[in-house]
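An instance follows:
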Amino acid sequence: MVIWIIDEEWNAYDVEISLLTKAFPGVMFRRSCYDFWHDLEEFGSTVDGLLAQVNVPLGDEVFSKMPRLKAISLYGTGYEAVDLDAAQKRGIGVRNVTAYSSEDIAEYVIMGTLFLVRRLPLFLKHNEKSPWGVRAIPALPHRLSGLTLAIAGYGHIGRRTALKAKAMGMTVLAYNRSDKSKQMQEDGVIPVTLEEAFINGDLVSLHLAASPDTRHIVDARVLSLMKKGSYLINTSRGSLLDEKALAGAVKKGTIAGALLDVVENEPFTAESPLYGVPQIIVTPHISYATEESFVKLKQEAAENLVALMKGDRRGRLTM
């Protein structure tokens, strides 16, 4: 049996190799970077199982050169790069990993909330010539306990974020595309529509899944609903945001700023309409990245592959 790992995130695979070797004694491993086409031609026909990062393009052109392939396990939640229909037609099982970093992303959102509300970006370049004390603050910030966080998307991550915000005394509103009002009410969260979330939130945090229906769901119209002085946080998918509209809203002062851990075209470059807008802070898609989340991700990805290779095909994806 041959397992192929396609990845550029890590240099060590002890967790995966240990689990897979225990399940399949004698298994052999191959590893490739994202430019894997030469390797596909060289040994793709020998591969039985695939562990791949979520951005690796896996379609029928790839599958046609891998006649032994039975299973694909993704290192993460997103699966947009996989042609699921082509995989199904060829009898290839596909699974992703969900909820492995809910705690980590929720912590990032709370960190970002404090970072924005307490206006820390203003003081990152503070030096001996800068004002000291209260004179350094253009306008006094507010306590979190007096503010409202609106969450768009009440899945694992949205809910963990809501509970952390509640613990800090914030009022929390939440929108979800399917009805989760009962869960929200049990959590002390107020169910709202998408428009109500943007109208009433001092901060709005996006946690919706990417799909054709949610592409640019946050556009100029939705951004125009936000309070003056409010902030937007996105740790979900860059495609949710119309980036030109966001840049315009910030430049016009419609909203105070944004913290984005994802952008529509990654990596972030000077070609982006968001580039150079000082009130928009972009981090390099790292909100999920902690030692604990990576261990859990690797473990669950390997366990998913074992299950698929042993014939457990309950659903194409673990969603």
